[in-house]
Amino acid sequence: ATGGDLSKWYWFLKPVLWADRVETQTSLGCSPYFIALGAEPILPLDIVESTWLVKLPDRVLTLEELIGYRAQALAKHRVHVEDMIKRVDEGK
After folding, report:
1. Which of residues 18 and 45 earns the better pLDDT score?
2. Does residue 39 fall inside a structural domain?
3. Is 1 domain-assigned?
4. How many domains is the chain built from?
5. What secondary structure does DSSP assign to 31-49, as a single string?
6. b vs e for 29-52, b when ≥16 Cβ sit within 10 Å of the residue's Cβ?
7. Which of 24, 45, 88, 91 has its CA 20 to 30 A from that of 59?
8. What does DSSP assign to residue 4?
9. Averaged over 67-78, what is the pLDDT?
10. Domain membership flag for residue 21
11. What is the DSSP annotation of 57-78?
């Protein structure tokens, strides 16, 4: 990436750190990004695909419906966090 010029390493530090943070760590079974935010990152190549990951409402949601959707998302998040904690504990 630096064309052999090691004095330019700092130009690539941010992309390298980003790649390290979004890559699944075998010891954890998930990425550091997932540990911090509870969701997998959307990479630039995933934008088109990610558009279809969420069912879009065909109308404006009521407050009760919105709260319901958020509660479902929170429940899924808790399940993911509990699974991650189990994997980390098993690795100790």
Report:
1. 18
2. yes
3. no
4. 1
5. -HHHHHHSS----GGGHHH
6. ebbebbeeebeeeeeeeeeeeeee
7. 45
8. T
9. 77
10. yes
11. PSSPPPHHHHHHHHHHHHHHHH
Q: Kindly report the length of the chain.
A: 92
The contacts of residue 1 (CB under 8 Å, 6+ apart) are 12
Q: What Cα–Cα distance (Å) separates residue 84 from each residue in 11, 17, 28, 88? A: 33, 22, 7, 6
Does residue 42 sit within a domain? yes
Q: How many Å is the Cα radius of gyration of the chain? A: 18
Distance CA 63, CA 78 (A): 22
**Tens digits of per-residue pLDDT, 2-31?**
778 888 888 888 888 888 888 888 888 888
Query: Mind spelling out the 3-state secondary structure of 74-89?
Result: HHHHHHHHHHHHHHHH
pLDDT for 40: 81
Provide the residue range defining the domain that includes 54.
6-91
Query: In 57-68, which positions are buried (b, 16+ CB within 10 angstroms) versus exposed (e)?
Result: eeeeeeeeeeee
Residues 6 or more apart in contact with residue 80 via CB below 8 angstroms? 34, 38
